[in-house]
Description:
Elements: H1 2-5, H2 15-40, H3 52-72, H4 79-96, E1 110-112, E2 115-117, H5 119-138, H6 145-164, H7 169-185, H8 190-217, H9 227-239, H10 250-262, H11 287-319, H12 324-348, H13 366-386, H14 388-415
Helix pairs in contact: 2-3, 2-11, 2-13, 3-13, 4-5, 5-6, 5-7, 5-12, 5-13, 6-7, 7-12, 10-11, 11-12, 12-13
Amino acid sequence: MKDSQERPRRGTPDFQLLILTLLLVGFGIVMVFSSSSSVTQFSEKFNYNPFYFTKKQIIFAGVGIFGMFITMNIPYEKFRKLFAQVFILAIILLMIVPFMNKINGASSWLQIGSFGIQPTELAKITTIMYLAALISKKGERFRDLRTGYIPVMVIVGFVAGLIMLQPDLGSCMILVATAGLIILAGGANMKHILGSIALLIFGASIVMGIGALWNKISPPTVTAESGSQYQLARIKAYIDPWEDPQHTSYNLIQSLTAMGHGGVTGTGFGQGIQKLHYLPNAYNDFIFSVIGEEFGFIGTLLFLLFYLYFIWRGLLVSLRCSSAFGTLMGVGIMGLIAIQSFINIGGVTRTIPITGITLPFISYGGSSLIVMLVAMGIVLSISRESSLPAKQERTKSVVVKEESVFERNNRRNRHM
């Protein structure tokens, strides 16, 4: 009877969420092959290897899945203490990265041999964990402006400022929006939130005004184009793509052409045209355009529905958690995925200006894929704790039933 009365320490991870994550990663690998093979097999730069990016993506996925299974088996409450060291490391890397070489007007990478690390990806996750720990610790005090809200906003502003030094407007937007979601879920005073939004808009307007004035006084050379000019060019391309179709609007026009060419049913897997030297970075920032061309409106709609269900499942698991820390961390991670997906898809479909952000789990990229999978391991760890009460209740009912049968048999033996 003693063994039957032992209750399980932890529940099982959410099987649906685990399978959905693996299916997304698998689909991403397939689309990386489709969008890159036709270019790499005819390029000396890639050793004429059609699997050049696909092999790397498989390695990244393997490392990420390994990390996911590790974090999935760590009780999520332990991340209250474990995240601090990683958060400090992310801050140090963010301080170093602005001094690296610029690519497309921004210095976002740290190169270690042939492997590139994007510290911003690590900073996003560690900031989520930091905010979840800080807000859950403050409890009701979080609603107080001076002792609760302002300290949290200082952390967000500090990390966002370091990201803007690169400059990386897209990642900064994602971080701020995700932090806003966590703060809202944490029960912040709406007056404080609205005041922060107004202050953010006012500050951004001042910075953009000063930047425009400075460019008029001291215009930069063509070879030393500033990050602000690069971002302004993207906004102009969004407003009127045909103003400069061969330069600033080229990527957007090719993306829209791909989506239009796909029509209702698509050209078929691997049969897309725009990825053939027309659409730059087809396997990275614009991979959704390849999906739209090859699978058409119907295929794209099914993909989006699948993606939405994945995000909904992760949020549901997080909201079921009895711990405020677990709920805020899970909501933050799934919110990050949802916001980044919206910004990527919105950019390539001209819903919002292009920001150069990858599509989570689908686009080619080591840092993004590995960090996202490790983060999903945390959500799966939360799901294990969320499923524990139900599992314990089932175990309790079985134990009670066994005890009642045992007592009934004893009574029968005594009567006999």
